[in-house]
Amino acid sequence: MIEGKMVRLRALEQSDLERAYEWANDREVTRLLMIRYPMSRGDEEKWLSESSGQNGFEHGVRLAIETKDGAHIGVTGLHRVSPEDRCAELGIMIGDKSFWSNGYGTDTIVTLLRFAFYQMNLHRVGLGVFPFNERGMACYLKCGFIEEGRNRENIYKDGRYWDVIRMGILRDEFDKLHGEAEAETATATG
Ligand SMILES: CC(C)(COP(=O)(O)OP(=O)(O)OC[C@H]1O[C@@H](n2cnc3c(N)ncnc32)[C@H](O)[C@@H]1OP(=O)(O)O)[C@@H](O)C(=O)NCCC(=O)NCCS
Q1: Strand partners, 91
Q2: Ligand 1 center to residue 83 CA distance, Å?
Q3: pLDDT of residue 94
Q4: Which residue in 75, 107, 104 sits closest to 92, CA to CA?
Q5: Does any domain span residue 24?
Q6: What residues in the chain have per-residue pLDDT under 50?
Q7: Can you give 53-109 as a three-state secondary structure string?
Q8: Any residues with Cβ below 6 Å from ligand 1, and which?
Q9: 107-108-109 Cα angle (round to 5)
Q10: 23, 129, 151, 190: which one has the fewest Cβ atoms less than 10 Å from its Cβ?
Q11: pLDDT tens readout for residues 130-181
Q12: How far apart are the first and last CA of the chain?
């Protein structure tokens, strides 16, 4: 487990299937993500079985987000991990909407970044966010991400093209904001 202040990040399990299936088909959630088409239980089963036990540089990192009292509220991870460049892309979905805007996203991201920088020895983490995702933008800025640019009209949603805002954070920027000393607390046991 990777322990944060409000959440713990753990390996995904087959028993997470029903929740992952429900979230991946919730339009309020998926309009904020790259997911466009409805997902079948089979798609989700395949995704989950590909995710379990595969964490690392080759396949990326996919983890369940749990509250400290054990409620599974979402999924996060790192993809496009490059061992040569020491960089990766971050993804997050708090699928249980009743947990939005309560600090869980911020704690998840800071916890995952701490793991990325101090356990995986990454140098940079980037992400893309849609301009209509104000909550996501506010959360990333709080975590220390910096807006780096835009891929103009890179996504088509709700009848029009939208820019994708590119954001990133470097390890030394994370150190200044969240403290190198806290690296000690980034524990991973499974
Ligand atoms: C985006 C997401 C990870 C953020 O996590 P979260 O737990 O909801 O966010 P947090 O509470 O940590 O931080 C959100 C901040 O945005 C603020 N916020 C919420 N709605 C806002 C809005 N419409 N405009 C501006 N700020 C807003 C909150 O007040 C909070 O800031 P504060 O703590 O200073 O008050 C989560 O909402 C989520 O997974 N959403 C669905 C999928 C998604 O958008 N994934 C990311 C795709 S790039």
Answers
A1: 77
A2: 30
A3: 98
A4: 75
A5: yes
A6: 187-190
A7: CCCECCCEEEEEEEECCCCEEEEEEEEEEECCCCEEEEEEEECCHHHCCCCHHHHHH
A8: 29, 32-33, 74, 92-94, 100-106, 129, 133-136, 138-139
A9: 90
A10: 190
A11: 999 999 999 999 999 999 999 999 999 999 999 999 999 999 999 999 986 5
A12: 5
Task: State CA 173 to chain mean position distance.
Answer: 19
By the 8 A CB rule, do 53 and 11 touch? yes
Q: Is residue 190, in this structure, part of any structural domain at all?
A: no
Query: Starting from the edge strand earliest in sequence, which strands make up the sheet with 160-170, in order?
Result: 2-3, 7-11, 61-67, 72-82, 87-94, 124-129, 160-170, 146-157
For residue 56, the domain's CATH number is 3.40.630.30
The DSSP code for 31 is: T
> How many separate domains does the chain show?
1
